[in-house]
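Z., the sequence and structure:
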Amino acid sequence: MDQIISSYFNLSVLRQALPYLQNGLILTLWLSISIVPLAMIAGLVIAMLFDLRQKWLNALLVVYIDLFRAFPPLVLIIFIFFGLPFLGIRFSEFVSFVLAATLNGAAYFGEIFRAGIASIPRGQYEAAVASGLTPLQAMIHVVLPQAIRNVLAPLTGNIIELVKATSLASVVAMPELLRSARIAQGNTYNATPLIAAAVIYLILLWPAVRLASRLERRAIARR
């Protein structure tokens, strides 16, 4: 038992690792608050463009969604950061990761928002337009509030997945939480920093996981 505590729950090692974990957590939070809003906005735009019901446009959107949902995020990050420079296009590590995660996340958010919009009877949109609202106003003020409420559970779940995906930033040598914990582990030859990182992730994401579960149950109850 003492060996387990010394190897995985060592308070002395944890104190040494705290600066690394703190810096990693800050970067993880910065990545999260950058990626999630951008991906949600892009996904919402995709869903609203779908609602225009233009065949050529919908075909392009389907290609985008299928491509970036099928493309592994890790490969996409590597392509943007290491591959695009061969074409003369260079981004910083931060921008490369945010761009890759946003492109991937927007594809999922687009499908979620599209399902929400499709769940609202078309007659509500048409009635709003007939009452004098512009198509955009009808979408924003009448359709979207109801649509978003109908898909809150999958939206929350996708946000959780995006936050967890920030651990992939280590591929471009960004010291997010997991990479910082691994650096601390390498310096101390002890697994305690990794356990601490896991606990931090749990504290960050567990409330959102419980919220998603509650929203799913509520959505099922309304059916």
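The mean pLDDT is 87. The chain has one domain: 2-167+176-222.

Let me know what you think.
H.
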